[in-house]
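Late entry, written up from scratch paper. The run itself happened at the end of the previous shift, but nothing got recorded in the book at the time, so transcribing now.
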Amino acid sequence: MPSVVTPMPVARARQDLFDVLAGQREVPEEGLHELARAAGWPVPDTLQAVVLATPADAAQLAAALGHALIGSVDGYTCLFVPDPATQTRARLEAALKGRPAAVGHVVPATDTASSLRWARYLLTLAPSRVGPESRPAFVDDHLSALLLLQDESLADALTSRWLGPLEELTPRQSERLEVTLLAWLEGGGAPEAAKLLHVHPQTVRYRLRQIEKLFGPVLRDPRTRFELEMALRSRRLMAHVRSYRARAGRRARAVASSIRPLGMAREARVNGL
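Output as recorded:
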């Protein structure tokens, strides 16, 4: 008698398909097509990941986003939105309004894990505000920041190399010259920097003379100016990330310290003794 092949349950096939697209397991190309058929979810040419801070109403949200594929990675509920071109930003924002979430960049289906990875990382950097005014964070809005933050060790090396001349100053002096240098690099001149900083142009020119004494003629080199701007942005981004992590750690410790073990008498009463 010919062997009977038992079809894979749809729910199992969908989870397996999600795991493959998320880079959590590997299958040959023909295996991917078989999973897609079993899941009833044809893999499109392009996908976009959405990572939710809370799993509430994920099924309804998936239906609203073109029957997105649902799965989980490290405790996060995630969705793969098919054919992102049909899901405008306004539609994504409307569907995700009121919930903390991060939306990855659009990628080919073969690179879905990348969209998922950066959306997850962005969600860890953005405060998880829950409420009707909560808005999703989009990777597309933070590409340069995520690029600078992808390796903290390199970011620290970049700032150490280029911002060393500021280390001999007091923190207040260093901060003042840092913001002035960054505004000058962004604006292209003293008047533009003054507008960004809301100070008089003469104040900027005075600070720029101090900066030139510290850094010397390298400020005239376009490549050096580019790397200086990267270093300044990296320092600010890393300070923000470390501050956020410190606040999150304090909140976690506060929650943990508020949990007290039950005393023996209280525990006995709870257990009905």
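The chain has twelve helices and six strands.
(Scratch paper discarded after transcription.)
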